[in-house]
Each structure stands twice: as structure tokens, then as C-alpha cells.
């Protein structure tokens, strides 16, 4: 198993909501395909489109993408939000920027996107997607005088994982091998089969490159947290819980600083974070609670880096079991469990202690639903971070939950498998959440 490759795939910088960025990326790729651009032809000059040259944009997304892009503000847009605006902006973005493509947005780009929307040139619809919880297809008609060309693109399984690009009917880029692999490569499939003891062993000998990536992750996500603590962005959960207060208890302090990071990015503030397993909020939860505990407890850097690495490795491990997007909140059931493992490790916990922390987390927050990315995610970030600290403390106190308790299994691995089964049964819940959001779209947007 290539540990460095796994961490490079797990940890990726992102500006704004990853689902909104993914929609814009898919549209951007389709628009640029009309000039012959593809990931294999990265030096092909990008075309700069006017709103008049964009004939129409048609985007199809699966339910999970729609839900997670529904309510989030977009960076550098003066308060614009949602799936339709993200699709419109994509026509004026650079696909080479990946999940950071919103960072170069100008007011002129926002104005052009608004013109497209007002002219009813942008359509976003929900479609079923087989074998994946992440699917986006974009078709962009580009008109130049009497000539027109349709660019088409599909992103599947990963937020920037282009499956194909077409210029008219010509296939200019195709990635069948990744499509056949469904979501991740063999290293991540191997990760899914490991035990928690083996995950701990994996971080005991981190390559220097991974340690440097963890340092960058800590720096980026701490900056987001500091931004949210300095001003009441979004709901201002972290700011309000800490402003003017001194000597907060350990749990309150850690949950508040984590919430502040989510406040900053969910507000649309142009602050970059290191996402974890495809989610910026997961990146914050898997990083900040562990770092905050280590700073308070004065843990040395070597153990800090390993603790944070374990947190993110467990977050990806959980993603392999429950999927990239689901009806359950990733900040809670993926990154929250990762943070609990990382904090327990930082406390000097052994494999048995970390396994107890996993079972405690699932016993307490397994039912937290995901009703889409939004400013209110900061509340779930706060709750899951607080529970991660409590789970670590309880696990180190030798609290063990037996398999007679609900979905808790005999082992931590059995408990994760039970959680995965629960997640797979919640399609009706996801359907109802999306129905509620669609009703809101027709009445309040």
C-alpha cells in the first residue's frame, strides 16, 4: 500500500464548498473542451467567453451533489450561492485550478454569470447515478458568430475525476480505467480492508513527504479557524462561543475553534482549507480538534503529526465504508471518528483505546443526518468535535461499549460495517431531504 499516494488523494486544497467547486469545474471543462482543451492538452490556450457566446449550460447532478451544493455561499462572489450560480460561473473559470477555481473570480465574471441566469441559459436537474454517490454531467454550447460547438464533460466518483470530454461528437479525453475502478484505486481498496491496529501501524513510520503534507494541512486549516475566530462569519458559532470569554474548558475550546473554521468557509469567505476525503468540513474536523488538544497538552511535533495523520487516514477509511457523500453527516461519522482516534493517539492511547473511541463515537452520533452543506454545518462541526474529545477521554478511561448496545458490534471494525449497512438503508431519508430542498428552491430562491 502506497501511503504517500493515499495521503495525496485524501488531502487536497479547496476554496469554498467542494461540491460547488466540482460543478463549476465540470462546466469549465466542458466549455474549454470546445477549443480542444483537455487534461492531456493542458497547454492549449483557454478561451475567454462573454455571456453572449455562451448559448446554454445544461448540468445534471445526482442527489448528493445537489444537496451538498444547495445552500453554500461561493467565495469571491459578494454573497452568491447555490448550484445554478456555480454552474453559470463555471463557464468563466479555469479547469486547471481544480477545486481552487473560485479564487480568481472577478466581479465581471459574477456579472456575466448573472446574465446567463437571467436569460434562462442555465439549467440544473437531478438525475439518478448508478454505482456512485458523486456524479456531474455538463453540456455547454459555445457560439462564435454563425458557428457553434457543444462541449460535454462527466465527473464521477471524485470531485475532479473527469471521465470524458467531448468537442461536439469527438471524444477528446477518456478515462475508462478509472471509471472501471468505480471510485478509488487499489491502494484505497486495500485501506478499506485494514484493521484499526493496522491503521495505527501505518502512521508510525510516515514518509517525510507525508509529514510535510500534514504540516501544510495544519497550517491551512488553522488559518481558516483563525479567520472564523476573528469575526462572526457565517453563523459565527466559533466567534460567539469564544469572543470575550477566557478559560474555556477543554471540550468547549476545541469544539469552538473547529466550528470557527467551518464558519469561515461556509460563509463564502475566500479562505482556503485542506479538504479530507473530498470535504473541507471533514478536513477541519480531522485536523483542528487534534491540533488544539496537542497544543493544550504540549504534545511534541512528532506525535502531533502522527495523530493528525491517523485522523485523516481514519477519515478516508470511513469514506471507503460509507461513501464520499451520503445521508449521514461526514463531519460526524467520518472526520469525527478520525478526530477521536487522533486525539486518543495523542493522549498516548494504544490500539485497544482507539478501538473503544470508535465504538463510543458510533454509539453516540451515528444518526446525524446530512441535509446539505450550509452555514449551519458549523453546528455539526462543533458537536462532532466536542464528542471526539469526550470519546477520547472516555476511551482512555477504559469505557467499553458492548455489542448488546444498538448497532455497536463486537469490534470497532464490526461496528463500522454496521454503520455502513445503516447508511446504505437511508436512501429514503436522502430522497426526503432533497424533496424538502427542492420545495425551498421553488418558494424562496
Structure description:
The protein is α+β, with helices and mostly antiparallel strands and 445 residues long. The chain has two domains: 13-180, 60s Ribosomal Protein L30, Chain: A (2-Layer Sandwich), CATH 3.30.1330; 186-444, 2-methylcitrate dehydratase PrpD (Orthogonal Bundle), CATH 1.10.4100.10. The chain has helices spanning 3-10, 18-33, 63-69, 83-90, 107-118, 176-180, 186-192, 196-203, 208-230, 237-242, 250-266, 280-297, 301-322, 330-346, 351-365, 377-396, 412-424, 427-444, and strands at 11-15, 54-61, 122-126, 135-144, 147-156, 162-167, 170-174, 272-276. Strands 3-2-4-5-6-7 form a six-stranded mixed beta sheet. The chain starts with a helix and ends with a helix.
Residue windows where pLDDT falls under 50 for at least 5 positions: 178-184
**Major sheet characteristics:** 6 strands, mixed
Structural class based on helices, strands and sheet pairing:
alpha+beta
Q: In total, how many beta strands?
A: 8
CATH class designation of the largest domain: Mainly Alpha
Radius of gyration (Å): 21 Å
Helix content: 40-55%
Q: Within the largest sheet, what's the order of strands?
A: 3-2-4-5-6-7
In round numbers, the mean pLDDT is: 93
Note the total helix count.
Answer: 18
Shape: globular
By CATH, the superfamily of the largest domain comes out as 2-methylcitrate dehydratase PrpD
Amino acid at each position: 500500500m502506497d501511503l504517500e499516494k493515499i495521503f495525496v488523494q485524501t488531502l487536497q486544497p479547496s476554496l469554498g464548498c467542494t461540491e460547488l467547486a466540482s460543478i463549476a469545474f465540470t462546466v469549465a471543462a466542458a466549455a474549454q473542451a470546445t477549443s480542444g482543451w483537455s487534461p492531456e492538452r493542458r497547454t492549449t490556450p483557454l478561451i475567454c467567453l462573454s455571456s453572449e457566446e455562451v448559448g446554454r449550460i445544461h448540468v445534471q447532478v445526482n442527489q448528493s451533489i445537489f444537496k451538498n451544493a444547495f445552500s453554500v455561499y461561493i467565495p469571491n462572489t459578494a454573497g452568491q450561492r447555490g448550484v445554478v450560480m456555480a454552474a453559470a460561473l463555471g463557464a468563466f473559470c479555469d479547469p486547471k485550478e481544480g477545486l481552487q477555481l473560485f479564487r480568481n473570480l472577478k466581479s465581471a465574471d459574477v456579472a456575466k454569470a448573472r446574465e446567463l441566469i437571467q436569460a434562462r441559459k442555465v439549467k440544473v436537474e437531478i438525475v439518478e447515478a448508478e454505482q456512485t454517490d458523486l456524479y456531474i454531467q455538463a453540456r455547454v454550447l459555445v457560439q462564435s458568430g454563425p458557428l457553434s460547438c457543444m462541449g460535454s464533460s462527466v465527473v464521477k466518483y471524485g470531485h475532479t475525476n473527469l471521465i470524458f470530454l467531448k468537442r461536439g461528437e469527438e471524444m477528446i479525453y477518456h478515462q475508462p480505467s478509472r471509471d472501471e475502478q468505480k471510485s478509488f484505486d487499489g491502494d484505497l481498496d486495500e485501506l478499506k480492508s485494514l484493521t484499526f491496529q493496522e491503521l495505527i501501524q501505518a502512521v508510525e513510520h510516515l514518509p517525510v513527504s507525508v509529514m510535510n503534507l500534514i504540516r501544510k494541512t495544519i497550517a491551512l486549516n488553522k488559518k481558516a479557524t483563525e479567520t472564523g475566530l476573528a469575526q462572526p462569519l457565517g453563523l459565527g458559532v466559533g466567534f460567539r462561543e469564544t469572543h470575550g470569554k477566557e478559560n474555556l474548558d477543554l471540550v468547549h475550546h476545541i469544539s469552538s475553534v473547529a466550528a470557527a473554521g467551518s464558519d469561515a468557509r461556509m460563509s463564502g469567505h475566500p479562505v482556503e482549507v485542506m479538504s479530507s476525503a473530498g470535504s473541507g468540513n471533514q478536513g477541519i474536523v480531522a485536523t483542528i480538534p487534534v491540533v488544539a488538544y496537542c497544543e493544550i497538552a504540549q504534545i511534541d511535533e512528532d506525535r502531533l503529526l502522527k495523530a493528525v495523520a491517523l485522523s485523516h487516514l481514519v477519515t478516508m477509511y470511513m469514506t471507503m465504508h460509507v461513501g464520499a457523500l451520503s445521508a449521514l453527516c461526514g463531519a460526524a461519522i467520518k472526520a469525527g471518528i478520525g478526530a477521536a482516534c487522533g486525539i486518543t493517539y495523542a493522549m498516548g492511547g494504544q490500539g485497544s483505546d482507539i478501538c473503544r473511541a470508535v465504538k463510543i463515537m458510533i454509539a453516540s452520533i451515528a444518526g446525524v443526518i446530512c441535509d446539505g452543506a450550509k452555514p449551519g454545518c458549523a453546528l455539526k462541526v462543533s458537536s462532532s468535535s466536542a464528542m471526539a474529545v469526550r470519546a477520547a477521554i472516555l476511551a482512555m478511561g477504559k469505557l467499553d461499549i458492548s455489542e448488546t448496545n444498538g448497532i455497536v458490534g463486537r469490534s470497532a471494525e464490526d461496528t463500522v460495517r454496521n454503520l455502513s449497512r445503516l447508511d446504505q438503508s437511508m436512501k429514503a431519508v436522502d430522497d426526503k431531504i432533497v424533496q424538502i430542498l427542492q420545495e425551498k428552491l421553488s418558494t424562496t430562491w
